[in-house]
Amino acid sequence: MSGTSGSVSAAAAADAEYEILCDVQANGTSTPFLRHYTTTGSGAPAVSDTALDGTTPYTPTGSVVRCGTSPNPQIDSTVQRQTGAGTMTIAAGARSVTVIVYAGSPTVALSGGTAVPLAAGTSATWSVDQGGKSGETLQDSFAFTGVAGNDFLVLSTREL
After folding, report:
1. Is the separation of the CB atoms in 42 and 13 below 8 Å?
2. pTM score, two decimals?
3. DSSP code of 114?
4. Nearest to 78 by CA among 158, 160, 159
5. 121-135: string of b/e by CB count within 10 Å (b at 16+)?
6. Nearest Cα residue to 127 out of 67, 75, 65
C-alpha cells in the first residue's frame, strides 16, 4: 500500500458573539449595553462595546457585570450531614442545593410535594446562575428526610 502524507491548510473562519452586560455606577444605577466579541480566527478576539442598538459606541464608566447581578455578592454556604433518622430543610430562596447520598435511600420533597427516594450513590444539584438584587433564586424549599441506615450530605448557597 502506498500513499502520500502531508498537511491540509484551512482558512480561519471569522466569528462574532454578543453579550448584554450592565455598567453599574457607585450610586447603584445600572445601564445595559452590548459587548461584541469578534475574531478572524488568527488570534485573540477583539472586544467593542455599543449601546443596545448595536451601533452607537458606548464606554462603561462603572463596574461591568452581568445584568441582574451584584459586582461582589456575598454568598452564605452551608454543609450538613445526616446519619440516620432526621430531616434537613433548605428554605426557598437558595441559589444552589446539592445532595450526595452515601447509604440508604433518603427522600427529598420540594415545597411540600411528594417525597421522592434518592438511591445510594445519587448526587443531585438544583441551582441558578444569576444572582444579585434582581437575580434568580430557587423558589422551592427542600426537605431531605432520612431513616435509620441513611447517610447523606446536603450543601447549599444563598446570597446575603
Report:
1. no
2. 0.59
3. -
4. 158
5. eeeeebeeeebbeeb
6. 75
**How far is the C-alpha of 35 from the C-alpha of 32, rounded, in Å?**
10
Residue 8 pLDDT exceeds 70 = no
Strands (E), 42-113: 46-50, 63-66, 75-83, 86-90, 96-103, 107-110
Q: How far apart are CA 133 and CA 109, in angstroms?
A: 28
> How many residues in total does the chain contain?
160
Mean local confidence (pLDDT), 82-96: 95
Determine the distance from the C-alpha atom of residue 132 to the mean position of all C-alpha atoms in its chain, rounded to a whole number. 12
Torsion of CA 40, 42, 44, 47, to 10 degrees: -20
Q: Is the pLDDT of residue 42 over 60?
A: yes
Give the pLDDT score at 7: 56
* Closest C-alpha among 96, 148, 90 to residue 124: 96
Average pLDDT on 93-106 reads 96
Q: What is the mean pLDDT of the chain?
A: 86
Nearest Cα neighbor of 73 from 1, 26, 130, 125 is 130
Q: Are residues 116 and 96 in contact, defined by beta-carbon separation less than 8 angstroms?
A: no
